[in-house]
Write a structure and sequence with these properties.
The chain is an all-alpha fold. The protein has a single domain, classed as Up-down Bundle (Growth Hormone, Chain: A). Helices cover 81% and strands 0% of the residues. It has 15 helices and no strands. This is MFS transporter. It is a multi-pass membrane protein. It is found in: Cell membrane.
């Protein structure tokens, strides 16, 4: 597909409200996510192990509650209530974070409110898929890719703005702004014209019969899902360790953390948009192998940053190019890849893709906390490289079993 596809995007039903919602949700997550580990350590005085336990509890609750909300939304004529519930819970969770730094209340807030809020991403994209469905399968997929790019666009400025907010207003001001951004994401959903999924069913069935290959074996799907879990674990461990590695071991500051995260998000956008303008020349499974291999290389480069003295910032800035390519491939094509592997089961495929990320967060929580407490935050990136390499190997095995035949939708 070439540039005319961008014209098609403008004709998608409810395109503008969905774009606004994705951008505001991107702002909300980009405000808070890079600085949550700093809040936990600096304000709540969590040890690395306690931080790992907090992240693990939040991840367990995210998987459980997202699955329950996903099943509930599948029985509703519209996913809008599920989207609003998850966004409202996230907003309330960030407001509640401003009221306490005690460990047990933070566990409850993270598990129940932020855990429910974690379903806002897959629910918004599932809702948008239904909204876009009447325009056709290809246009709808391009619309979702564009939404993911807009989400990343918010991450360009969000971390830098978050560092400014932390410096000027503290973590309380940061969390209030994150809550306000979630409210801003919910408003376009409330005002959008809700489309019933019944209108999408006939077109989806037709597309699946005519264009979608037969589903792969359960064994292949398990290997692919496991590789994505390991990828998610490595990515999440690196995201948690990076701000603490920079501020506690390299002598950096929150502004440099925001710069690195924002630069990565900026670099993701052209890669993502290239998937809209032109289909990838390589099979999706091949691109996943490349992405997971590149994540191992990025982790090793970041680990090297602890051994180059004052040149660490330049090295890490360069490494963000690699990380941006990794995230763009895995997050943008990954959702479509799972939908392709499970034809006719878009909701289940989207939930499985989202849950691999949540499972990665679950494993990364305690693992990164225990590892950092024993060996330091820099050493976490060595472990990330190993996990990414294993994920890459599993994808190669799944391709040899036949999983590499399919292209992204």
């Amino acid at each position: 597909m070439t540039a005319p596809a961008l014209t098609t995007l403008r004709r998608l039903p409810s395109a503008l409200p969905m774009l606004i919602a994705a951008f505001m949700m991107g702002l909300a997550t980009s405000f808070a996510a890079p600085f949550m580990p700093l809040f936990a350590v600096q304000s709540a005085h969590m040890s690395p192990l306690k931080l790992g336990l907090y992240l693990t509890v939040t991840a367990v609750c995210s998987i459980t509650l997202s699955t329950l909300i996903g099943r509930w939304s599948d029985r509703l004529p519209s996913r809008r209530p599920a989207v609003l519930l998850s966004m409202g819970s996230a907003a309330l969770g960030f407001v509640m974070l401003t009221t306490t730094t005690a460990y047990v209340p933070l566990l409850l807030i993270g598990g129940l409110l932020l855990g429910t809020g974690a379903s806002s991403f897959p629910q918004l994209f599932a809702y948008a898929r239904v909204q876009f469905g009447s325009a056709g399968a290809e246009a709808a997929q391009n619309g979702l890719t564009t939404l993911r790019s807009i989400f990343s666009l918010a991450w360009v400025a969000g971390p830098l703005l978050g560092s400014v907010l932390v410096g000027a207003l503290g973590f309380r001001g940061l969390f209030f702004c994150a809550a306000a951004a979630y409210v801003g994401a919910a408003l376009p959903v409330i005002l959008s014209r809700g489309h019933s999924r019944a209108a999408l069913t006939a077109a989806s069935v037709s597309a699946n019969l005519n264009e979608t290959p037969a589903p792969i074996s359960a064994r292949q799907l398990q290997l692919i899902a496991l590789s994505f879990v390991l990828y998610g674990t490595a990515l999440a461990m690196g995201a948690v360790a990076l701000p603490l590695f920079i501020t506690q071991e390299l002598g950096g500051n929150t502004g440099q953390v925001g710069l690195l995260v924002g630069l990565c998000a900026l670099l993701e956008i052209p890669v993502m948009l290239s998937f809209v303008l032109r289909p990838p020349r390589f099979r999706t499974a091949t691109l996943m192998v490349v992405a997971f291999g590149l994540l191992a290389a990025y982790s090793l480069l970041t680990l090297l940053g602890g051994h180059v003295g004052g040149a660490w910032l330049g090295l890490m800035l360069s490494a963000q190019i690699i990380r941006a390519v990794v995230i763009a491939i895995a997050s943008c094509l990954g959702m479509a890849y799972f939908q392709e592997l499970m034809p006719g089961r878009v909701g289940a495929a989207t939930t499985l893709f989202a849950n691999t990320s949540s499972a990665g967060n679950l494993v990364s929580g305690l693992l990164s906390g225990a590892w950092a407490q024993a060996f330091g935050y820099g050493s976490v990136f060595g472990l990330c490289a190993v996990l990414a390499a294993v994920a890459c190997s599993l994808m190669v095995v799944s391709r040899r079993m036949g999983g590499g035949r399919r292209r992204a939708a």
